Structure prediction request, 494 residues.
Amino acid sequence: MRAKSMKLVAMVALILLLSAGVVSADGETARSYAPAVYDTVACTVVVEPGSSIQKAISPARSGAVICVRGGVYAEALKIAPANAGITLMAYPGEQPILDGENRLPVITNKNRFAPLIMVNARNVTVDGLEIRRSTMRGITVSQGDVILRNLIVHDNYEVGVIATGPTAAPLRNVLVENSIVYNNLLKNANGAAGGSALTFIAVENGTARGNVIYHNYGEGLVAGRWTRNMVLEGNASYDNRGANIYLVNTTDPIVRGNYVFCTDDPISWRGKGGMYRPGPGLQVRDENFKAPQPPPSSGQVIVNNIVVGCGVNFGVATQIAGGGLNNAIVAHNTFVNARSVSGESANNIEIAGNAALNNTQFVNNLILQSVPGTITRIQVAMGTPNLSTFMVSNNLYSRTPGNGWVAAESGRLVTDPQLVNPVLPLQAALPAPANFALTATSPAVDAGATSIGVSQDFFSDERTGTVDIGADELGGSTQFNLLGDPASLTFSGE
Prediction:
């Protein structure tokens, strides 16, 4: 069990790509999202150390701003429907800690998934709290129009943060940003990997951006079943035991500008008999759920992500007919060096043979595999994929793709991409995304297809004219700063 002293540090330049226009597979302009507005609010109620936060919440009504002074508070909180419109936040400049002490909340048969903070009201903001050591979940959102911001959520027995609504009436407009979610799902510390750290289920128009999700004993960041129009952007997700970013039975998600990687830290490695590899980087998967079964995934927009060093950097699989990539765009991503120990297969790009690839574009991606492992693999043993509408073009591979991959590809390059310093991430030295940017002599420069229409790159630089292959457009900034523990998020090699 890993417990770290965490501290929020100033965000200098978070890469959000909020205004990046993306063009859909049929050429129509897809969704564009505006940045959040950070309002200055004045405290209407101040909770002093030794006082009860819940006693301040219970009578609060719309417009109340409850500011909690620094200190440790051992209680479980409920924000009820009558509390709609309130703000619960840290007193400016101070750090309040909500501590379950591994005894709260008290779990019964009726509330076996109880959290330390239950948000069951609309138009609520929770800002700046540390939430730790829950007997079950960290924070649960069960109503729409909720903002979770600047949180530190760690060492909880189950999920760290979850927004979940009923399938018949999904929640709308849930934002989780600038938060740190680590060392959750301690129920799996003995080796299991079920559950996820930051999760959306049955949510429409939800957003997760600028978060750091790491060292969780399950999946990291998840857009789950019955979600629609989710945006996952500008996050760092690494060393989670399950998929670091997981799209499961979701419709029209946008996944852009995320930095995903796996180090040699054994927390994220799985296997047996001396055959081990890290969890997946970015995984698309349709699962077979109990009725009602969500529809197959569709409309995925996966652009400008950098994924490095995982057992599978980009994977697609399904347990249901028609699941996989449907009307999807996978473009301008950089996938570097899937890895494992000797004897266990590492696949940079892996697609199950029974997964759909309908009307899907796989364009302008950079795939580097310079360590042992397969650069592309279609698992034909799981079925024969229909490649007739899987449109693959202008990708750069460090070696010739095989294992059932599309043979005819216009604009294909097979060569060294000449990245700045494509090192494998190590627990002791986390590489900056700038390591995976293009050098001036890279053959990826000006080699991309221009029709895909991704207007900005990973570093928020504009793409104009003839575009480059991969997540980086040569010539702009390569700065990427994040919230988080300075010790654990010190990038090197820039």
User: Anything to note?
Assistant: The longest helix spans residues 53-57. Residues 1-37, 483-488 have pLDDT under 50 and may be disordered. Residues 336 and 368 are 5 Å apart (CA to CA). The helical segments are 53-57.
